[in-house]
């Protein structure tokens, strides 16, 4: 017997997915997984300071739990480099649904 997955959205916003004629909304959980970063001044252009950002560890991502899938941002997923099969991010490629101003309204699925 197959157990239903528990989805935890660790993005700071709801994620809407359109698939096979259906729509499913994953509400923001109130918890957010992020990538720690730091900025170092890297000179200036036309007198305007320019910084270089260095990314480090993922923070706010719970430990793996059987049957739980975590929805995170693309940056978090990229830093994890596929090391966690329980982590997905919204696929925001060509197939996503955009509003009049170009904002993403829904995605067609997830990626790792």
Quick description:
The protein has 112 residues and is mainly beta.
Question: What is the topology?
Answer:
Layout: E1 6-9, E2 15-19, E3 22-26, E4 34-45, E5 48-59, E6 68-71, H1 74-80, E7 87-90, E8 97-98, E9 104-106, E10 110-111
Parallel strand pairs: 1-6, 6-7
Antiparallel strand pairs: 2-3, 4-5, 7-10, 8-9
**Class by SSE composition:** mainly beta
How many structural domains? 1
The number of strands is 10
Q: Which residues form runs of ≥5 with pLDDT under 50?
A: none
Average pLDDT, rounded to a whole number, is 95
Tally of helical segments? 1
The major sheet is characterized as: 4 strands, mixed
Quaternary: single chain
Could you tell me the radius of gyration in angstroms?
Answer: 17 Å
- What is the end-to-end distance? 26 Å
User: Taking strands numbered 1, 2, ... along the chain, how are they ordered across the largest sheet?
Assistant: 1-6-7-10
Strand residue content: over 45%
